[in-house]
């Protein structure tokens, strides 16, 4: 529509609509109640701001985020639009004044918190106002099935009848499962056909897993390549935060730190400095970020593996809220899994809760080890609709290599697990398949198995990699606990009986960090050994004896 495009360009200075926006706005233009389901940063605000500007009357925006109302209103003022907010942060005298101005139709937009509808004087004022539309921002809060249910949100529904004037009703949300969507549709009288669903994929985010790198070196080189960009580095512990902060501070970066060990004032100052662009970088534990809406964050680096996909996606999702391309990098080292396991052990949870946490951590580890598209993994995990096979921009999609059929090897691994009576973990299983001389194997009588040494043409590392791959693809299960034990599942059976094939992406360059070309061979081997011992979760001396120089040389770059 011409008039909407004009508003977009003249008021907001944008050239074109983002996916879904024009459709939502056209619906509103035709007087239809509409639900917009778009990812964070997708541009939901414009979906009510543009029609609100195109229509006569006052648009009421209901939002549970009081802290963000002022920003939105300031933004509209800067564009020369009459807007205000009415919430508990202003005096009651001021509230009364704004209500009177609202009844005189002096605002084009009025932002309110859901609790406002409990006030008789507010309802009365609404009845006197010429309303254009009522938008429920964060509409999932209206549903008991949502993750952030607000009873006050739901109790607005019956009140809508009393308001009169037939304003158009809109719902907007980024987090809606099918149940929540149906709930919003029925409560707000929105026809399913008038629901605009762009999917949840955050197309501007690129996900990367970096394995076996020196983390600080990685961060420093990332910062050098991305100078002037705003970013958050999440660490697992306060100690890690202090360490990373000190290094960056010493190098002269404008950096803040945030964790639970700092005083309230220190945390407040750090947050303010970061929000108002006095510092570009924030090093923090997961304590940082709740309720923070900073739109120009260009990258999130995780210094260590988070405890589950939920926290990971929430933290990584703080990048790119303005819709611009942004990176989410996770620095993975297997030792960090132990930190998370330790935290679970130490939490005073009941057995059942603990098992659930282990399971979630396991999915997080699988994310780090999967060889398929990271973006698809995320979309599948959260059941955010059908994922395309590959996003083409995550570290796995960008990896060079070939897809190979490994069904036969998978069968060997699975039958080995079966022969070991599903009583052992990854380490011992790999040793059996390799045909290792490890004393433990003799002790447990494992050298007599028919699968002993059946994969001896591979290194133990390569075998381990394949077992982890089978785990990540859920072709094999792991019993939860501190030392996961390999178990067969239905998919294992299907593979063993030849009903299902397994393909694996074999990288041209091994996952261990490439040795530096400039160093001499000895130094290169040393580096390689170091990164490989990290990969295998073994102390360095084990590799010394287990891996011959010749074997190691296979991994050297040409
Ligand atoms: P959401 O509420 O969906 O998370 P916002 O409405 O806060 O997203 O918008 C995110 C960012 O995208 C804002 O900075 C906004 O100005 C910008 N934006 C929205 N629509 C467009 C557009 N059509 N073109 C360019 N930028 C846009
Ligand atoms: Mg929003
Ligand atoms: Zn991908």
TrEMBL record:
The Helicase C-terminal domain, residue ranges: 215-362
Keywords attached to this entry: ATP-binding, DNA damage, DNA recombination, DNA repair, DNA-binding, Helicase, Hydrolase, Isomerase, Metal-binding, Nucleotide-binding, Zinc
Catalysed reactions, as listed in the record: Couples ATP hydrolysis with the unwinding of duplex DNA by translocating in the 3'-5' direction
Any one Gene Ontology BP term: DNA repair
Cofactor or coenzyme needed: Zn(2+); Mg(2+)
Enzyme class per UniProt: isomerase
Molecular function terms, GO-annotated: 3'-5' DNA helicase activity; ATP binding; DNA binding; four-way junction helicase activity; hydrolase activity; metal ion binding
EC id: 5.6.2.4
Domain spans labelled Helicase ATP-binding: 25-194
GO-annotated cellular components: bacterial nucleoid; cytoplasm; replisome
Signal peptide region: none
Presence of keyword DNA-binding: yes
Domain of life of the source: Bacteria
Family: Belongs to the helicase family. RecQ subfamily.
Name of the featured protein: DNA helicase RecQ
Organism expressing this protein natively: Oceanobacillus sojae
Parent-protein start and end of this portion: 1 to 558 of 717
């Amino acid at each position: 529509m011409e008039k909407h495009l004009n508003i977009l360009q003249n008021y907001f200075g944008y050239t074109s609509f983002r996916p879904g926006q024009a459709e939502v706005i056209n619906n509103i233009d035709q007087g239809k109640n509409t639900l917009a389901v778009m990812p964070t940063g997708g541009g939901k605000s414009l979906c009510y701001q543009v029609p609100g500007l195109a229509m006569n009357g006052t648009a009421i925006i209901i939002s549970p985020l009081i802290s963000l109302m002022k920003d939105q209103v300031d933004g509209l003022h800067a564009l020369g639009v009459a807007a205000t907010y009415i919430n508990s942060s202003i005096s009651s005298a001021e509230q009364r004044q704004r209500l009177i101005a609202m009844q005189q139709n002096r605002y084009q937009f009025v932002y309110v918190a859901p609790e406002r509808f409990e006030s008789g004087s507010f309802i009365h004022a609404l009845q006197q106002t010429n309303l254009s539309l009522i938008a429920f921002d964060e509409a999932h809060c209206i549903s008991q099935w949502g993750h952030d249910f607000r009873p006050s949100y739901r109790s607005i529904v019956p009140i809508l009848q009393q308001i009169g004037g037939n304003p158009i009703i809109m719902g907007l949300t980024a987090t809606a499962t099918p149940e929540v969507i149906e709930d919003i549709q029925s409560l707000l009288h929105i026809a399913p056909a008038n629901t605009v669903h762009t999917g949840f994929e955050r197309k501007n985010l690129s996900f990367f897993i970096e394995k076996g790198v020196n983390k600080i070196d990685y961060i420093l080189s990332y910062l050098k390549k991305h100078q002037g960009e705003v970013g958050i580095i999440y660490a697992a512990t306060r100690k890690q935060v202090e360490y990373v902060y000190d290094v960056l501070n010493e190098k002269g970066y404008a950096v803040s730190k945030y964790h639970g060990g700092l005083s309230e004032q220190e945390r407040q100052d750090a947050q303010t400095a970061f929000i108002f662009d006095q510092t570009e970088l924030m090093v923090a534990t997961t304590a940082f970020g709740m309720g923070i809406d900073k739109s120009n964050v260009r990258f999130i680096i995780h210094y260590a593996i988070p405890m589950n996909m939920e926290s990971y996606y929430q933290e990584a999702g703080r990048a790119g809220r303005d819709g611009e391309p942004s990176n989410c990098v996770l620095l993975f080292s297997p030792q960090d899994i132990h930190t998370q396991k330790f935290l679970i052990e130490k939490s005073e949870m009941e057995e059942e809760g603990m098992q659930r946490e282990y399971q979630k951590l396991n999915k997080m580890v699988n994310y780090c080890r999967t060889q398929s598209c990271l973006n698809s993994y995320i979309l599948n995990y959260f059941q955010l609709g059908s994922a395309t096979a590959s996003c083409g921009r995550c570290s796995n999609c960008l990896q060079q290599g070939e897809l190979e059929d490994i069904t036969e090897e998978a069968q060997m691994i699975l039958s080995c697990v079966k022969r070991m009576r599903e009583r052992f973990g990854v380490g011992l299983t790999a040793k059996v398949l390799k045909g290792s001389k490890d004393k433990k194997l003799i002790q447990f009588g494992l050298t007599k198995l028919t699968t002993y040494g059946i994969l001896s043409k591979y290194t133990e590392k390569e075998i381990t990699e394949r077992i982890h791959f089978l785990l990540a693809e859920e072709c094999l299960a792991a019993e939860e606990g501190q030392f996961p034990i390999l178990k067969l599942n239905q998919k294992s059976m299907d593979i063993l009986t030849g009903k299902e094939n397994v393909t694996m992406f074999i990288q041209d360059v091994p996952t261990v960090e490439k040795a530096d070309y400039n160093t001499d061979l000895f130094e290169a081997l040393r580096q390689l050994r170091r990164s490989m011992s990290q990969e295998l979760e073994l102390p360095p001396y084990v590799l010394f004896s287990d891996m011959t120089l010749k074997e190691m040389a296979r991994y050297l770059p040409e």
